[in-house]
Amino acid sequence: MTDTATAPASGVKPATKPARPFFSSGPCAKPPGWDASKLATESLGRSHRSKIGKQRLQYCIDLMRELLNLPDTHRIGIVPGSDTGAFEMAMWTMLGARPVTALAWESFGEGWVTDAVKQLKIDPTVIRADYGQLPDLNAIDWSTDVLFTWNGTTSGVRVPNADFIPAEREGLSFADATSGVFAYDIDWSKIDVATFSWQKVLGGEGGHGVLILGPRAVERLESYTPAWPLPKVFRLVSKGKLTEGIFKGETINTPSMLAVEDAIASLEWAKSLGTGGLIARSDANAAALDRIVDARDWLGHLAADPASRSKTSVCLTVEGADEAFIKAMAGALEKEGAAFDVAGYRDAPAGLRIWCGATVDTADIEALGPWLDWAYATAKNAA
Question: Partners of 242 in the beta sheet?
Fold first, then answer.
């Protein structure tokens, strides 16, 4: 294990670079050993409605169900528009039946608030917290439908677990879990609606979302018709009944079978490790980054409380840094091929964001430490 303890940030260029310097928080690093030539190609150039097309889509769904330990009570479907499309599909089709509470502690949570207020005009109760903080989860009224992000990708703050969701609740729980699924143990009995995309923990391609519906969500869909019009790509119900084909690989629109095959390859890699193995890799990566942060007085965590600190999209503060300083650090690292895409999200406080999900190797996180020292000193000297 590399010794991450260091003297004050040095301008000396490290001798060793991360073998795979891919630390973007989406799309994220491909799984170790990924090779495009290894992707199955039988479904490429074929209709997604052909026998082989439907088989591969169903196989992808089956792999996700197995890895997530998803109960038979929950349906899982591939939908358009990445995680954003999946979550907006859920909002547009199910909200409006009862009051809504929206939690916002980072930019995507704020995006769902904007959708609810300005687009759907449903006047939700909004419970906010600043970047780096988690709102008071005890303040939630569960007679309402509740929107929240499981893991705030742009703030590095997550819910510690599902304990804050009561087993007996009147409203539905809507979890945007895009950078949380496959990285945390999720109690699916507490989740009525969940969304994610392959481009996060699996390292898959963008453009496709995944929608998970529990039985209470299906009941809502079949008993409630929204007041607003629904575009075709959002329609989950036909003649008052759930369109079951969507959850058997019969997608609403044409999917990229190349992206599906890429997701299957990632899922097969993940299956070789098991869910526990995926979680262990993320945990090990986050712990390695923690050691780097602890050894440097100029580096810190945006999420102050370790209990609610992300183990995937880890957001860091840099002493005295503004947006230009972070841009200089990230640019220097990219130019050297030592780390790609490590600047924080554009709406977040100026800082770094290091993806620590399962597709990243711990050795690469450890090798990153000295390069952060170098980039910090380089940006400081140029300022």
Answer: 237
Tokens encoding 246? 């969507």
Alpha-carbon gap, residue 233 to 239, rounded angstroms: 16
**Long-range contacts at 212-215 (CB < 8 A, ≥ 24 apart):** 212/70, 212/74, 212/75, 212/76, 212/188, 213/74, 213/75, 213/76, 213/77, 213/242, 213/247, 214/73, 214/74, 214/188, 215/73, 215/74
pLDDT in tens, 83-101: 999 999 999 999 999 999 9
Q: What distance in Å separates the CA atoms of residue 269 and residue 261, rounded to the nearest whole number?
A: 12
Distance CA 53, CA 256 (A): 10
**What kind and span of H or E run contains 338?**
none
* Rounded Cα distance, 198 and 209, in Å: 7
Model confidence band, residue 11 (pLDDT cutoffs 50, 70, 90): confident
Query: Up-side HSE of residue 187: CA atoms within 13 Å toward CB?
Result: 12
Query: Residue 19, SS3?
Result: coil
Among 237, 206, 197, residue whose Cα is nearest residue 92: 237
Mean pLDDT across the chain: 96
Tokens for 261, please give them. 């095959």
Write down the pLDDT at residue 9: 62
Model confidence at 205: pLDDT above 90: yes
pTM: 0.95
Which spans in 37-196 are helix H? 51-68, 82-94, 107-114
Stretch 335-351: mean pLDDT: 96
